[in-house]
Specification:
Strand 15 and strand 16 form a beta hairpin. The longest helix is centred in the C-terminal third of the chain and has 21 residues. It contains eleven helices and 30 strands. The chain is an alpha+beta fold and 670 residues long. It is globular and about 85 Å long. The strands form seven sheets. Strands 11, 12, 13, 14, 15, 16 and 19 form a seven-stranded antiparallel beta sheet that branches.
Length: 670
Amino acid sequence: MTIWHPLLAQNQKIILDLGNLIDGDRYTGFFNVTLEALYYDDKYAAGFRPAQHIYPISAQSSSNNTTSLFSLPSDSGSVDLTIPRNAKNAIVSVMASGNGAEEFWFTNVPSEYANTFPGNEEWLYGYSPFREVQVLIDGELAGVSWPFPILFTGGVDPGAWRPIVGIDAFELPSFEIDISPWLGLITDGQSHTFQVRVVGFDTSAEDGIGPVGENWWVSGSVFVWLDDTVEQTIMQNFKSSITTPSFDFHPVVGTAISDNGTATNTSLYFSLIASRNITVSSIIESGNTTREVAWTQRLSFSNIQNMTDLAFNQSLAMVASGSYSDSTSNVVSHHTYPFNLFSAYDVASSGATSNPGSVFCMADRRAHTYLLRYVTSRREPRESLDRITVFADYEEVHLDIVAVHGLGAHPYYSWKANAPPSDSSGAPEGDEAQINWLEHDDFLKKDFKNVRILSYSYNADWFVDASLSTASQKALTFLETLSEFREKTKKTPPILFIGHSFGGILIKYAIYSAHSDSRFGDISRDTAGIIFLGTPHQGSTVSWIGEILARLTILSGSDATLLKLLSHGSPELLDLKRDFSAAVTSIINQKPLLVYSFYETLPTFRYGVSLGVIVGPQSATLDFGKHIPVNTDHSGLNKCKTRKDDLYVKICSAIQNVKSILQQHSGKHN
């Protein structure tokens, strides 16, 4: 709520509207509501830069003790505002929610297909499954949002929401548009029209844009920051490069011919794919300062539906993704909202329906930056991911353990497992509910003294904000980071690498590169052991799933390059296997080097569906070294709940073997 500081610093009327239906028979529940606000005096006041003014884009009906929402398309959704002449930044924030006939807009069909099944009239809604929420200034498009479906409580399968509510039901996200490029045009002291509009897809329209049903509830706010050193903000070289949405629609209607020649529609399949690019820029002059400002959006959308049995059986696969960048934060933000839904209704003689089916939904906002929060707090730019984290260190270090996480994994939480229930109070709470065995005092720190425990983190994303560097390039960065760290700390003991999944591939590239590059000869010389945890030396048979998702979400920053590398029988992996084996053989001829290949024995399940064994023993093992089976699935090969875990016991045994070999070889290490 801190972004609303200009309003909350004054007396305001607060309206809490939680709609409810009481009919005395079926719906009898009343809400008991407590509303709390926490005010605090933060220590970073020097970096606190809230907007000086907040202007509403709403019906402004609070004087009637009602919420100030527009209902589109029946309302205009527009207001006239006068922006201060000396505005230096401005951001529009908009909330938009489909309700009533538009609650399940994402399951709709183009209007001409709404009556595909005459035997089930009014079951399908028209206006298509595509929605675009637009922000217009004086009738010109400033930016858009392609919203994520909100499944409100009771949606699709009412029984599913008894213990929990739908995704975002209590936290409907707003979207933001930087309108700073418009300053100069709208800081002339005159009123300007700000409008929010919702449109859909229409196959008959020349540009593909069409109307939507009732009713979309929308409201917005314009946040404005001022430059107190000038009286007038001046703008020049205003450019608006906005493409109309590009639509690709393919319908297929299945029919059956009866004995009397009557044709009946039996199925409807269609795919709707869309994309759009928006760039608005200008040069802003404030006093003696000149700066270029821009707002850029890249959006993509796909919706694939298949209906049978008069549309009582309906499946949907949808992905809305995109990116935006602005001159205020200088951050490129990405979002990806995959959504899958399947519903199958059985219609009884009474007309009632049952067995409504299932919903699978996922929202990925890891790389999403909220402009208002960023600007209000003046957050520093994101830190580079390529770094070494120290979990344990000693004045005298006999061995470095360097752990490398896998593809698509978090550099810290990748190593954390849910802790077993506490003896006294059940399951632990908060951070105590998870154990990072690399960091926890009761694991490696307890069993191995004078062993420095490190982890290497890097951009492992392929789904969103993916790094475009190759595996060999990532390995070179790894070597540079590790070498610099060891040199800086003036500690260069023998090294034991631990790599989970793709992390093991990165280690193999690093060992091969270090062996052939004199700059990293010390790392090649100091490598004493390698533990591979489910590393797909010959690829994995399930990487194709990720490749498909990466292609569908490419505009949000996805990239399938590393996933292709991990495909079964990959030529690059075969070349790496040869080069790595040669490097290890050369090292072993000079000094001891122990290699362990751990592999899973259990299938991996996701959302109740078995993906099988992700990396089987044939791919997870090398032609040399020791092969270690572990009673877990792929995601469990880097997590230890207790000291008695099969994985932890075997890893400790391998570490002890490395230490023993080092002691025998040099007589210096304990």
